[in-house]
Amino acid sequence: MAGRISDQAVYVATGSFLTGIGIHLALFIRGEWHVYSPYIGSYYGLLLGFSLCLHVWYANFMPIFAFFSHIAGIFASIFIYRLIFHRLNRAGLPGPFWARFSKLPHVWKIRDSKNHIYLHNIHVKYGEVVRTGPAEVTIFLPEALEAVGGRQSTCIKGEFYDLLWPELALFAARDKSLHAKRRRDWNAGFSPQAIKIHEKKVLRHVQRPDQQLRIEVASGNVVNVTEFLLWFTFDVMTDFTFSGSLNLLQEDKCRQVVVKARRARSTLGPLTPAPWLLQVGLKLLPRIWWIKDWNDSITWAHDQIQDRLSRKVDDKDLVSYLMEPKTTSREELGRWLKGDSLLAILAGSEPTGQSLAGVFHELARHPDQIRKLRNDLKGISLSDNKALVVVPHLNAVLQEAMRLHANLLTGGVQKTAETGLRFGDGIYIPPHTTVVTPLYTISRREDCFEHAEEFIPERWTSRREMVRNAQAHVPFSLGTYNCFGQELGMRIMRYTVAMVVTHYDFCYAPGHDGSEMELGKSDRFTAFPGKVPLCFTLVSKAEG
User: Fold this and answer.
1) Which residues face 434 on adjacent strands?
2) Strands 434-436, 136-139: parallel, antiparallel or unpaired by DSSP?
3) pLDDT at residue 173 above 70?
4) What is the superkingdom listed in this entry's lineage (predicted)?
5) pTM of the prediction?
């Protein structure tokens, strides 16, 4: 009897183990499964529960034995395949040993959302092209930016961009033809004619930081510029998108909306390298921790869309342009609007606010640059973009700040197509490989920029020899997926910097040296700068 039971256990274990191997080889190594990971996890959770019920009901360990044998077969197949047979093994790329098997160690190592620092250290240790995951390569070469993200690139957006699935959004459109179709709809909202309409709103909003700073100066308050600018740019973008401002600079009753949106992005910090794990969290734990804030932010954006659709506006906003396409069904258009609404606000407010925080951080540490910039702005209308755009030092300050404080520290993840990717000096990346090009490291390469860690705006004007390789500076992405709102963003930054520098002197508050900005910076797909606590004083009329 004991022998028969033992034989039965062997048969069950072997059969279950082999089915695990078969499922991995027949299904899981083919195509993409990250968006289905919550359902796969739920299925196996139910299967485990069913096995436990059978065990309790029949007092038999065989169902549980079969279940864990099946799971063991899946993981054994994954381990052996990735160790010996995976396509990246033939590429012979250096990298951490664990990177062959899983992204979970990467997730653990960046649990503090410092992926930019972690990858920078990986570069120092392993070189220019590094294997950082079972099917992921990180490239630290400037020429990779064009090869991976340029107009001629065959790469598509990586699996991370499915985070809104099954919702539709331009940001999340991985199919190039679908992206191009929706991009045309967005482009109408950023045409020269549309920019003229939007500019009226921008100029109106730029007055508000000036008014609020005068109040702070009179009160002798220290201003956390990082937070201050986030309120400002969020106001601009909600008005730009929905024709309605939250007045965050003056009132704090609606600030919780922004706080939640930022807190929600904390989920992206450690989970961006593992899109499947992000999907599990978003779908299976919707009301837990930061994920609750993420879903609340999406709900808020949906509510704003519904409110906007229920009223008419005097001047066209972004929603007006996005509603115009006649070739899209009403149902599909509604799905696009829901997904794009959150994109418009976050993609417009956060990068602009973060870039401005970088500008004022650097200017506060280099007061000579404030004086030089103020002198160049004398006699120029602060509301005339045509005049501001030809002030060389203003644009140099903005470019240099964006170089040192890139919005996408390690983001913009792409994936190679069926043909793989060839570039540079014979570098080949196999098909269906996730490719990461960390701007944080690339834009600080000494072979691309002389004194790369230093803030020297003149490298973009009178000292161009200090730019050794301009390919390494990509403030607004490249190619098909480049930033459609860059012109509007640059105008907001020009107006804001010109206004503040003309009207105010500023420096770091006593006890602060600017180190908090970098030490507190986190990588949550886009950059989240640390605190920038500044003291402002009004410029005398004689000096201004």
Assistant:
1) 136, 415
2) parallel
3) yes
4) Eukaryota
5) 0.90
Q: Which two tokens stand for residue 286?
A: 């919707």
The structure tokens listed for 544 are 């201004």
**CA pseudo-torsion sign 68, 71, 73, 76:** negative
Q: List pLDDT tens digits, range 391-404.
A: 999 999 999 999 99
What does the alpha-carbon distance between residue 528 and residue 511 come to, in Å, rounded to a whole number?
22
The span from the CA of 271 to the CA of 353, in Å, is 24
Closest CA to 268 of 255, 281, 259: 281
Is residue 483 part of an annotated ligand binding site? yes
Q: Which residues pair with 223 in a beta bridge?
A: 534
Environment class of 414 (CB within 10 Å of its CB; exposed 0-12, middle 13-18, buried 19+): buried
| 5 has a pLDDT exceeding 60 | no
The residue with tokens 């944080």 is 440
Given a contact cutoff of 8 angstroms between Cβ atoms, the answer to whether 442 and 140 are in contact is yes
The CATH homologous superfamily for domain 156-538 is Cytochrome P450 (1.10.630.10)
Q: Which residues contact 452 (CB under 8 A, 6 or more apart)?
A: 443, 444, 445, 446
Alpha helices in 137-244 (DSSP H): 143-149, 176-188, 192-219, 225-242
Query: How much is the mean pLDDT over the chain?
Result: 88
**pLDDT band at residue 1 under the 50/70/90 scheme:** very low
User: According to CATH, where is 1.10.630.10 located in the chain?
Assistant: 156-538
Q: What count of other Cβ atoms lies within 10 Å of the Cβ of residue 341?
A: 26
- What tens digit of pLDDT does each residue of 285-311 get? 888 777 888 888 888 888 888 888 788
Question: Residue 480 in contact with residue 449, Cβ under 8 Å?
Answer: no
**The token pair that represents 321 in the structure block:** 């342009």
How many CB atoms sit inside 10 A of residue 349's CB?
26
Top mean-pLDDT range of 6-15, 37-46, 322-331: 37-46
Cα separation of the two ends of the chain: 98
